[in-house]
User: Fold this.
Amino acid sequence: MSKKTKAQELQEQLTWSAPHIGKDAPDHKEKALKYCEGYKQFLNAGKTERECVKEAVHMLKKAGYKPFDRTASYEPGDKVYYVNRRKAIIATTFGKKPLSEGLHINGAHIDSPRLDLKPNPLYEKEDIAYFKTHYYGGIRKYQWATIPLSLHGVIYKKNGDAVTVNIGEDPADPVFYISDLLPHLAARQNQRSLAEGIKGEELNILIGSIPYPEKGLKDPVKLKVLQILNEKYGIVEADFYRAELEIVAAGPARDVGFDRSLIASAAHDDRVCAYPALRAELDTLHPTYTTVTILTDKEEIGSVGNTGLHSDYVRHYLEYLAENAGVSYKDMLQHALCLSSDVSAAFDPTFPDVYEAGNSCYLGKGCVLTKYTGARGKSGSSDASAETMSKVIGIMEAHNVYWQAGKVDEGGGGTVAQFIAGMNIDVVDLGVPVMSMHAPMEIVSKMDVYEAYNAFVAFYK
Ligand code: MN
Ligand code: MN
Assistant:
């Protein structure tokens, strides 16, 4: 090795860019590959917010967590959870320091862009039965045609019984499908803009094509489908008004690449933060500060509704924690520190024009710290203070976490950070780079998922 020049030495001391984990720490790759087997299982078990909550409760109970009891007294190391309406969940491990000295909060979301069935979804046209859909969150509609789709959700019957639906994941199940034109007949459709390639009202789900065998019936294919649904679930058409049914890409998460370094799956946004957050919560046994791990709903449509972070459900939980410990709620919040854990758009070498290379995040360089989100002069964002950035970077540096700086999500999408900041809590966005974000199948790097976990574990130490 030749001796470094003065300039080379200076460059090493003074400049910074995030290294690729694969080059810098090859041993992380093996650990990351192993870690992500659990992540893939979580992805497959939780394709909707309700399924994620169910899976999270299962994991928490197995680890000895108990439902939070406002009247119980808690000791450091005790573990509790709280479920909000089956669609959001909070878990806590009590810390050594009193709650009056603050909390460490980590918030991720478990809703994802998808197609929801309309309240009256079932119709027939030219001897084919369909479900009408309404898209949820920011999607590129043309991406949802001609791929296998699955149906997930819950239907309530007149007698109050709930029917859980999950069709299209088991290889023996049928799947569902949105059609598109063949190239030969698409000349006019090809003139549409990409945004209009498939229109919202064309996102119709193919669900059957065999008529009920009797002459003179109106909509016999629809009737046949209703007969099948009635035999399987005991439901009638009116019960769709008492349902929440979601269409997502069918099939399990899959390894991508000869080196198996990436994962393609539905709904990485934001399970890729929710799973490491939950895992860090589970693996934290004796934290300094009390932990609050939030897996919330409705982020993709602005955090609205009583299961989203714009509602008071997290406030109420935190108030109960403070009351239970006999400390001031306001003091507790003032000393709290929060990570808003959500995904960032990974630099895509095929489409370099939309990224600023110096402020982008890259697959394989670790978790992404984002000072502010929003767009147009930071509107709609929570701009983390230099002090908060310093604290969080300090934690990651102390624990050798690979992290990179990024500008966030969808070039204008907010995250839950603004709602946490609104509670007078210090908060910064930390997440994982995602390629093809909001597509039916998205891509992440296993090394980044593992590094998010390492960051969250360090945060809860
Ligand atoms: Mn999103
Ligand atoms: Mn997100």
User: Anything to note?
Assistant: The pocket of manganese (II) ion (ligand 1) is lined by residues 269, 300, 409, 438 (CB under 6 Å). Residues 46 and 405 are 29 Å apart (CA to CA).
